[in-house]
Amino acid sequence: GALTFTGGLDVPSIYYFRGFRQERDPKLTLWPFMDLGITFRSGNRPSERLGVNLGIWNSLNTGSSGLEGPAQALHYEEDFYATFTMGIGAGLGLGATYTAYTSPNNMATTIKEASVKVSRAGWLGPYGLAAFELSDNGQADSGSSKGTYVEFGASPAWSWKRLTFSGPMRVGLSAQDYYEGRDGDETFGFFDVGALVTFPLGVPDRFGSWNVHGGASYLLLGDTTEARNIDQDGNISDRAVVTIFGVGVSY
Fold it and tell me: Which residues of 201-239 are buried (b: 16+ CB within 10 A; e: fewer)?
């Protein structure tokens, strides 16, 4: 059909956004999300494929950025996005996105961002992304100038019986003023490599396609992101391990 709904709930051990730690003392964190895909045109040739995705993503924190923090409010983050997608041939897809990152409990500033992503279909799933902060008053690094972020990644995947295994990896870089620190803008923000296992649930087709998934990722941080990676005991580290478990549905 022309409409596709995707949603789910993820539970991470701690929240990092592009290498920036979001909570010194995490407790239970929940990420509910939903996405509506609208296909305007589809065909055999990639260039005939046009669509739009509208979505919302949330972070509900019970730790120091939420219920146990200064705001004493659960709803740490709520993001709204709209993406225009099209095929451009040779298995390549192009997406242009506008995102508003908001913080209902006022623990972070609102970030408005425009991004462009080029990806290639296939088992390796490589992509490149460039994102542009649109305001000096809302930045991921809380710096003095709006920044430009660049990311390269891939997510090789393969199946065995009913399980799907993937190995997502990505590197986050500053093209300009995205990882501003005490010594100026740092080019390297983080490197992230992980493993994810997805298992389909035996739910009748009329209720959509359901799955459970879980995995872990290892982060290596740059100088700017390391300086913000402070735990509840005041320790600073240039690396981190994040685990995640969740349930998803598409219909």
Answer: eeeeeeeeebbebebebebbbbebbbebbeeeeeeeeee
